[in-house]
Amino acid sequence: MLRDIFEGIAYLFEEILFYPLDLLRELELDTWWGANAINFIFVLVAIAAFAYWMKQLKHFHDTHEDERKDAPDSYLG
Fold this sequence. Notes:
The chain is mainly alpha-helical. The protein has 2 domains: 1-32, no CATH class; 36-67. It has 4 helices and no strands. The longest helix has 26 residues, at 37-62. The mean pLDDT is 88. Pfam families: DUF6341 (PF19868). This is Uracil phosphoribosyltransferase.
């Protein structure tokens, strides 16, 4: 019984969950650019998130919101 559970888990990962990775491995033999397209998408998302973050930091710096002193008690601030 325990062996069946582990074989079921192995089947789930090897045949079902890793299937998209097998397709990417086969695609790499045809075109390197196609196989790495998802990496390029992740890089573009990271660049867009970084640009948005920098824009927000500049906005808070320009409006001096980053210099506010909110202390819970008067003796702390």
